[in-house]
Amino acid sequence: MAFKEYGDHDALGLAGLVRSKQISPRELLDEAVARTERVNPRINAVVVRHEDYAQRQIDEGLPDGPFTGVPFLLKDLELLGGTRTTFGASLYKDFVADHTGTLAQRFLKAGLTIFGKSASPEFGLMPTTECRLHGPTRNPWNTDHASGGSSGGAAAAVAARILPVAHASDGGGSIRIPASACGVFGLKPTRARNPTGPDKAEGWGGFSCGHVVSISVRDSAAMLDAVHGPELTSPYMAPAPERPFLDEVSRGSGRLRIFFTDKSPYGDAIDPEVAAAVRDVGRLLEAQGHHVEERAPVLPLDPAQVIAAIVSANTAATVQFAEKKFGRPMTSDDFEKLTLGSAHNASKASAVDYVTALQNAFQISRSVTEFFTGCDIFLSPTLCTPPIRIGEIDTMSDDLGHVAPLLRRYMPGTSMANMTGQPSMSVPLAWSSKGLPIGMMFTAHFGDEAMLFRLAGQLEQIRPWKDRRPPISA
């Protein structure tokens, strides 16, 4: 029998029902699978399914954690030993991992039952989830529109209530972009807060990190409590929290000094509805007693050029690894043309160019950090337009010149927090006149997720979003 109240609970709520024996982990898994079968054909959010793995977890006995028995999806970039991970790439469509990533190990220890993988663009490169291998992941608010990326499958699955929380990762906005596009909560943690091993010490030069997207703020906080902390091979670590992050959600935020902008960091015009939403949220914050002031950082360099150089170099390393592994050059039968084009761009650069890009990222980081000496929080639009339409970015085009201008218009501000390592979150506080979500991005000082959780907890109370559901919802 279907558990009709499943969609009314966040992950901690479901775990509480398991703990009190009102529901069993197997019943929750069955409900998540049934919901996947009901809505996934319309949104294509879950691209790898391994319910048998989750069933074995239950049969062998789940650990006693904060999320024991709660169904969960990994992003299709994360390794889980004995299961398929495709990285969104045709070459790896049948790849089965022989070991489990550190972050996935911590998800397992938290008691989550992992029944599949959520869609990602090829190697997580794009802010839309439309890989050739699996096809486009559609936005449950309007299937003509994209779900964001690169954690677009995770955000679409959570928005459609297949499950209340799912793994996501962010190298240039890939938690916050889909959270905004799909109307869910998404926090990118401080650099090195969560582990990236055992196969790599850091992702994209320290830009990338993993966490979750969720319906509720408290799920994100409790998950960070469960998985954060260094591993043996961590080259550096984030500042230790003063108290559990979950405790912060219900604490008062106090009077904050909040700077905001309703403009693109390039000075370009943004969508009028998005700009109006930022100003509306500014007034909302002011009404709560916060000091709100219009001010934005002035960047010494173009962040798009910096991140492109670093991501291209990492993509080239991925392609080169595959060429060595399979003993032949990679072609567009193996990888999308955008992936190969990014790798080709890196091949024209030198090691000196890569070091220069890292130094330029530091200069941007220093400039933004100096800006933050005057404020507690910086508010800006997560995306400068509503979610783009399916097909606007064509990763198999022979002419990829359309990509960079679109990214500049769509998500010009998200990568700054990846360069600085600061925690940053997208909060679903507005919707367009056509019913598409508009996320607000809040960024705090390095190491201060606590302040973001306190503010998010306040916003969740005064402008709740949990019961606002898209037309496609399980």
TrEMBL record:
Domain Amidase span(s) in chain numbering: 27-452
Domain of life: Bacteria
Keywords: Hydrolase
Pfam families, alphabetized: Amidase (PF01425)
Entries under PANTHER family matching the protein: GLUTAMYL-TRNA(GLN) AMIDOTRANSFERASE SUBUNIT A, MITOCHONDRIAL, TRANSAMIDASE
Family indicated by similarity: Belongs to the amidase family.
The protein's name in its UniProt record: Indoleacetamide hydrolase
Taxonomic placement: Bacteria, Pseudomonadati, Pseudomonadota, Alphaproteobacteria, Hyphomicrobiales
